[in-house]
Specification:
Distance between the termini: 31 Å
Shape: globular
Order of helices and strands: EEHEHEHEHEHEEEHHHHHHHEEH
Bound molecules: nicotinamide-adenine-dinucleotide, zinc ion
Number of strands: 11
Oligomer: single chain
Helix content: 40-55%
Strand order of the largest sheet: 1-2-9-6-5-3-4
Strand content: 15-25%
């Protein structure tokens, strides 16, 4: 069992990573906080796979304490928060209830925002069931929903009382969703962990097979990095921006394709390749850009990347939530394990990388630097 303690302004909490921990959820939650009842917020799909196990783990639990919603990204919105809060009222949930978010990042973000606002805040426990949620989104206290105008535009910082990550839940994740999470794992190596980078170069095939030992090595390392970064900068004043590596261009790609073509991690994978090319063009990363590109390609093919350029590209980049007064701030790598942040770039460099990106991400080019095809 790995336990990582995360300090936050609202109090510390444990992040537990252990195969089979789901079966001990009841006892672990009781140790972390006092509560009247546990209300599980989840999705139909996740519940179908893991509901029975969780139900057995919480003594005295009954069906009225279950709230399921459709966790498509399109449903990550205020109307869903409204619906869940009303169901909590009707089920008699009081101030001492715990909300348990069982699912991926969408469930965590929505249920987290409900917990932050229901009766002005009730205790929250995350039980993340995707690679993204275990390695990243369940830690750090960001909760929220999308608006038609953009992603994650309404939300709150709200720390959980406990995070319980059971890698066994990853066994039922569709392969494309799983691979999408691996791009975010690469992000952690590049921003802060050279040793993780080396491990990924050597063990990507094992990770693609979801080898339990490889997952047990990699996920806690990502958790630790995320925990240390958000502890230093809980409300995203500075350092936390490094978590945005690959996301500036990634968000532009997601937005340009109407959030339908790419899974989030896939867009981040492309964004990291764009950042590697920019770092090479600006002499920041003379030697290791190819390693970064290799790692992204080793995870497997991504959907066709559109060519973005001119004023359209600039508009997409400038509307990113992280830009300031229309100025885009980039996170760029120096080597695997170290990035700089807050960098402004000349338009010509960004446009050169944007023009080169579609070819770099074409499946037929993946053989160039030793790509091994990922299982579908
Ligand atoms: N709060 C944060 O700090 C933070 C960080 C990163 C991402 N996010 C958010 O997370 C969301 C993406 O989350 P995600 O990548 O975890 O995907 P997701 O929550 O969209 O889940 C992907 C799909 O997998 C299904 N699923 C989840 N767990 C499963 C399992 N164990 N077995 C089978 N199917 C399962 C879901 O039902 C869904 O259909 C985005 O909305 C993003 O904005 C938040
Ligand atoms: Zn991300």
């Amino acid at each position: 069992m790995t336990t990582i303690r995360v300090r936050s302004a609202a109090g510390s909490y444990d992040v537990v990573f252990e195969r089979g921990v789901l079966a001990r959820a009841g006892a672990m939650i009781r140790r972390a906080c006092e509560y009247s009842k546990v209300y599980v917020v989840s999705s139909l799909r996740v519940w179908r796979h893991w509901g029975a196990k969780l139900r057995r783990a919480i003594p005295g639990w009954n069906e009225k304490q279950k709230i399921l919603f459709d966790d498509a990204e399109a449903k990550k919105r205020l109307a869903t928060v409204d619906e869940i809060a009303r169901r909590l009222v009707r089920a008699g949930a009081d101030r001492r209830c715990v909300i348990l978010a069982l699912g991926g990042g969408v469930v965590g973000d929505v249920a987290g925002f409900v917990a932050a606002t229901y009766l002005r805040g009730v205790p929250l426990v995350h039980v993340p069931t995707t690679l993204v949620a275990q390695a990243d989104s369940s830690i750090g206290g960001k909760t929220g929903v999308d608006l038609p105008e953009g992603k994650n535009l309404v939300g709150a910082f709200y720390s959980p009382k406990l995070v319980l990550a059971d890698p066994e839940t990853l066994t039922t994740l569709p392969q494309r969703e799983y691979r999408s999470g691996l791009y975010e794992v690469i992000k952690y190596a590049v921003i802060a962990d050279r040793k993780l980078g080396k491990y990924l170069v050597q063990n990507m095939p094992a990770l693609l097979r979801r080898d339990p030992a490889a997952l047990a090595w990699v996920i806690p390392r990502c958790m630790r990095i995320k925990a240390r970064v958000v502890e230093k900068d809980e409300h995203e004043g500075g350092l936390r921006q490094i978590l945005n590596f690959g996301h500036t261009f990634g968000h532009a790609l997601e937005s340009a394709t109407g959030y339908r073509r790419f899974l989030h991690g896939e867009a981040v994978g492309c964004g990291m390749v764009a950042a590697a090319m920019i770092a090479m063009l600006t002499n920041r990363m003379p030697r290791e850009a190819a390693v970064l590109i290799f790692l992204v390609q080793a995870v497997g093919p991504v959907p066709e990347v559109p060519t973005l350029g001119g004023s359209r590209l600039w508009k997409l980049l400038a509307t990113d939530k992280k830009s300031r007064n229309g100025h885009v701030r980039w996170v760029l790598p120096r080597r695997i394990g170290k990035v700089d942040w807050g960098i402004e770039l000349p338009r010509s460099v960004v446009e050169t990388a944007a023009r080169a990106l579609p070819a770099a991400m074409m499946e037929k080019n993946f053989g160039i630097i030793g790509f091994r095809r990922a299982p579908k």
